[in-house]
Amino acid sequence: MEVRKIFSKSWRINTDSSQCSPEIMEEFGLSPLIAKLLTNRKVTTSEEVKFFFKGGKKDLPCPFLLKGMDQAVDLFEASLKNKEKILIYGDYDVDGLTSVALILRTLRRYNTGNIIYYLPKRLAEGYGLHLQALTKAVNYGCTLVVTVDCGITACSEADYLAEKGVKLLLTDHHEPGEQLPTAASLVNPKLSPDYPYPQLAGVGVAFKLLQGLATRMPELEVDLWENIDLVALGTIADVVPLLGENRVLVKEGLKALKNTGNPGLRALMSQTGLLGKKIESW
Known about the structure:
alpha/beta; inorganic pyrophosphatase (n-terminal core); 2 domains; five-stranded parallel β-sheet
């Protein structure tokens, strides 16, 4: 890494001269420039280059490679089939909003009014789980709280739910602290050393939870993929690396977004002049 002064600003210049091997460049017809760009993104092997350009739904890793996913799916499936009252607790940013919307829309056929959601107010409450909202859920009779895009540091809030006999299914993608919350199930790719793509956004983790659930409840598979546009939106907005699994989710989601049946997304695209047009991520 080299630091240069350009227009009175200090720029850190990458001086790494490594790039894809000549064999890989020939195999995929890569120019030196494209090969260098791929190398800068740590895409250097034949398998990685193939996934980068041609990866699709069939190439997504098994959701059960994520630590805690077996318990999470067991818990969620039982609560749905028992028609328990369930709270989906999200976050106020695009990643958190799309995570909540993804779960609610995918599970519509199972929601008879028993699945509710909560989004904290950005200015009044800020990020994370809040006791006031959880207390309302307990009083409402919720027996399961599912977090998306939050909760990995909510130790005291998790203890409160445990005291009240409410199960906590925690999904998050943020860095965990030294102490983990007490939860019936906890899914975070950063706690799964064997998972090949730990840089999922919160909506990506929610997608993997639903993907795992769909192996037990196959009717959810179609509903999940009908909402892949939400996964793309949240993934892009959270500025996670568009590599590996994230790249496939965004690619599939952007294709679906052009002709989405989601009225909210259609309204947004109409307002921005994008309705019916090809949509890309820059």
